[in-house]
Amino acid sequence: MADNELFPVAADWAKRAWVDAGKYKAMYEQSVQDPSAFWGEQGKRVDWIKPYSQVKDVSFDKADLHIRWFADGVLNVSANCIDRHLPKRASQTAIIWEGDDPSKAESITYQQLHDEVCRMANVMKAKGVKKGDRVTIYLPMIPAAAYAMLACARIGAVHSVVFGGFSPDSLANRIQDCDSQFLITADEGLRGGRGVPLKANADAALKTCPNVKTVLVVKHTGGRIEMAAGRDVWLHDEAAKVPATCAPEPMNAEDPLFILYTSGSTGKPKGVLHTSGGYLVFASMTHQYVFDYHDGDIYWCTADVGWVTGHSYILYGPLANGATTLMFEGVPNYPDASRFWQVIDKHKVNIFYTAPTAIRALMREGEAPVKKTSRASLRLLGSVGEPINPEAWLWYHRVIGDGRCPIVDTWWQTETGGILITPLPGAIDQKPGSATLPFFGVKPELVDGEGKVLDGATEGNLCISDSWPGQMRTVYGDHQRFIDTYFSTFPGKYFTGDGCRRDADGYYWITGRVDDVINVSGHRMGTAEVESALVAHPKVAEAAVVGYPHNIKGQGIYAYVTLKTGIQATEELRKELVQHVRTLIGPIASPDLIQWAPGLPKTRSGKIMRRILRKIAENEHSALGDTSTLADPSVVDDLVNNRMNRG
Ligand code: ATP
Ligand code: MG
């Protein structure tokens, strides 16, 4: 499809942004030619208790794999996100909290954040939590989630946040995997007006987690729950007994900050481990430059703190930069499909960062819910989580941003800690559907199946050939899995698992996960391009394609298509869609089978799970694998019952 549709950097953006095109080139060159000098300088953006003398100490060689940044530096992440701002920002809002109920909101200043975090830290200490202990956090999107994470960072405990939508089993697995003995949860969460029984789920999970000695419970909805004597305590009771100051624990740069289990689009969740110094430097720097954050901006990332996006871009990056960050408890369509835009107007949000799944869902509802709102405060839009179909990009740009706001399509992973490929809004012209160019210090490489590095305009496996400070350090408790997963397929490089195309301008286009690649008559095809062609049809809301065994072609293309609200599924439309893809991409990409899908199976972070769709297409729905991370397992039944006969 059109690679050359260009949205150039506007002149006012080039002027006001931290980085313009010339500066991007110069800084990028320096960052990859002399990473130690570059990051040695950037490392100073955080406060060190003991400054580092070493910067980069890395080997991607399997036999001697190690990744260390600022290794002899000592710092505390919570002090960097709170204390160091107090002289200037004690009364500035750190967190704007917007409740699921539109009548509920709160502003938390940096001073209040300090006091709440210190109290929670003191409670944890009083209950015996020590530096290095793992603490599991199972909370809704309420300020206490931020306090809990920062309190762990303050005392050197390693947090593992488990998304509040996960089941008791998923929670139990994650608690056991890192042997966490302390759990922080709430009575209930609220999403779209419905209660989420967090404490009851936790009680069920803890039946198989005998090592958990203490459960700290946040009172949120006031719903009825059971409190186990000797194990469960209320935060408000305990917090009243402790002071609102707590000295931050000096931490080595390479001491663990958190474990985060990946969402599991591709299999058994991995405990991704991030450390303190490099992670914070990278989260802070990417937040400043990618979102062009300036003092006074109101910044909103709609992710849940249970995902890495919430860690790096609701909490650590923004707070390290002294920003005002908005935390939203609810969902995009409650009370109605205007909610996001109402929140933007209410809090005068300038920077808005969300996921393609949300954009596609809102697009399905048409323009009216958007156009009821002003959105005049918006200056910049962002996307993360999946390839954004060009059609959705254009809608986001034209309808949400009124054609005025650049879009940063940010490619990164739980493993990368922060954004690796992205436009910088004042420096890099955007192309709808492309994550564009690498961030400072990031060296992407495309390699073929044998690991040969491909040059110029080409397509291949996306690797990163050198380290950046935010990189994960290991899989918790399974270093061999870390080596096997990321450094063995293509020796000497970090393998992302994603396929990618580079165009003649050097722009990167993520084509989908390599595991999902379809091979039709010897032509390898990413899922993104075919899906984007389908989504480009005016009647299509969302699409997912997978391969299935085909006698002649090796693999055929099986497409699951969700139509826009009110559109009839007919045989004519099926033919029209096949023809549409033929015209846009070519006959090789035309779907062999199209199944109408009222919903697509997604992870709880909203990503399409093609692994499951593939099994259905292959007629192996008895072997769907781990479906525990599915947001709505019932969509699978519908798809199985209505699957196309492939003859
Ligand atoms: P798991 O690794 O457990 O299967 P996951 O890969 O979904 O889960 P994340 O780390 O949240 O977990 O997601 C990272 C992946 O999301 C990337 O590897 C890529 O496939 C996709 N992704 C994220 N952002 C973008 C983007 N801007 N464009 C294209 N793809 C993206
Ligand atoms: Mg992944």
UniProtKB/TrEMBL annotation:
Binding-site positions, Mg(2+): V535, H537, V540
Catalytic activity, as annotated: acetate + ATP + CoA = acetyl-CoA + AMP + diphosphate
Post-translational modification: Acetylated. Deacetylation by the SIR2-homolog deacetylase activates the enzyme.
Annotated positions binding CoA: R191, G192, G193, R194, T309, N333, S521, R582
A single GO molecular function term of this UniProt record: metal ion binding
One GO term describing the cellular component: cytosol
Residues that, per the record, bind ATP: G385, E386, P387, D409, T410, W411, W412, Q413, T414, D498, R513, R524
Top-rank taxon, per record: Bacteria
Keywords, in A-Z order: Acetylation, ATP-binding, Ligase, Magnesium, Metal-binding, Nucleotide-binding
Chain segments annotated as coiled-coil in the UniProt record: none
Modified residues (N6-acetyllysine): K607
Protein's GO biological process: acetyl-CoA biosynthetic process from acetate
EC number: 6.2.1.1
Sequence ranges assigned to domain AMP-dependent synthetase/ligase in this UniProt record: 85-467
Cofactors that this protein relies on: Mg(2+)
Residue intervals of the Acetyl-coenzyme A synthetase N-terminal domain: 24-81
Annotated family: Belongs to the ATP-dependent AMP-binding enzyme family.
Function: Catalyzes the conversion of acetate into acetyl-CoA (AcCoA), an essential intermediate at the junction of anabolic and catabolic pathways. AcsA undergoes a two-step reaction. In the first half reaction, AcsA combines acetate with ATP to form acetyl-adenylate (AcAMP) intermediate. In the second half reaction, it can then transfer the acetyl group from AcAMP to the sulfhydryl group of CoA, forming the product AcCoA.
Listed NCBIfam families: Ac_CoA_lig_AcsA (TIGR02188), PRK00174.1 (NF001208)
The protein's name: Acetyl-coenzyme A synthetase
Organism of derivation: Ferrovibrio terrae
Gene name tied to this protein: acs
